[in-house]
Amino acid sequence: MSDVLKVEDGQVVSMTYTLQVEGQVVDSSDGNEPLEFLQGVGNIIPGLERELYGMAIGESKQVIVVAVDAYGEFDEDAIVEVPKAEFPADIPVEIGTELQVHGQDGETMYGHISQVGEETVQLDFNHPLAGKELQFSVTIAALRPASDEELLHGHVHGEEHDH
User: Judging by beta carbons within 10 Å of its beta carbon (0-12, 13-18, 19+), is residue 62 exposed, middle or buried?
Assistant: First the structure.
């Protein structure tokens, strides 16, 4: 039996990473602290979480995550046409403008303006990486057992948490 810690459920994982989409770096921990999360509770996308099991401190891996195991497939139904006249005056009507909308059930949805027409504005509520294959380069920086409180809450408590 080995005493080497490996990634498993109930551990706090510290991981450095670089994320590429279509050959372009879109996110990275370079220059920042490693990403810290609780393994096994869905704190990170499912396809990446699944690939980390069994990795040890210092181990690196290339991970390809298909859209369905990341931010989902692109959903045409998540695109909504809104009459320009109904658009709030304080929001710039420009492609790429990000906004929050509250649904009828009170849920907050995040989207961006994807098209601006003569009479309508098209809002896209897909995640920006929906439908994309993600290429991660990851290295396990540290591992530790989660505290009872972290397990109860389902997320990591850093030094800034005092409850």
Answer: exposed
